[in-house]
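dude i think i finally got it to work??
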Amino acid sequence: MKHINLSFAACGFLGIYHLGAAAAFHRHGKKLLRNVKAFAGASAGSLAAVVLLAVPENIEKCKHFACGFAEEVRRLNFGAVTPGYDFMKTLREGIESILPSDVHEIAENRLYVSVTNTKSGENHLVSNFPSREDLIKVLLASSFIPVYAGIKPVEFKGQKWVDGGLTNGLPILPVGRTVTISPFSGRLDICPQDKGRVDLYVKLAKQDMMVSI
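look at this
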């Protein structure tokens, strides 16, 4: 089988779709997964990617956390921007509870996380993780939506980073065939199938999405 990659799109709390796809891969696609060389993602997609790569047995635990997190934010008067609420603290606690101690070793050069540099505005795909803490910081950076998730961007290697979905919401890796997964309908391999009278396609942060009219 040719070189295969899996890429999960940026999508916020719609990341529960990714966890459903990951569960299906884990349950029914073990043969395919053995041939996947790399996993990529942006924002919530990067979290699904690392769970499927490193600890697929925790997909259900991740689903439980994601649903609880979304419900917690929904109950707040002003959502994630409610004064005093620490969105990133809750996200970090969830990530730390799900990922194993050697996750950075498993992910090294197999996981590609999309992040945006605050100074240059350029996108970077990070695949080198010297420690578990470094990997967690990169995952947090990829999910950091300015203002919504907080005021201070995530610091990593002396620089500040924010949501990778702002500049590359669906990483396509240069080597092999990248299978794309997204909760948004569009020109993607795995996505909802929507049909309208007129289908318009828009490209946002390198992700093709369909707008049905």
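Residues 4-212 form one domain.
im so relieved honestly
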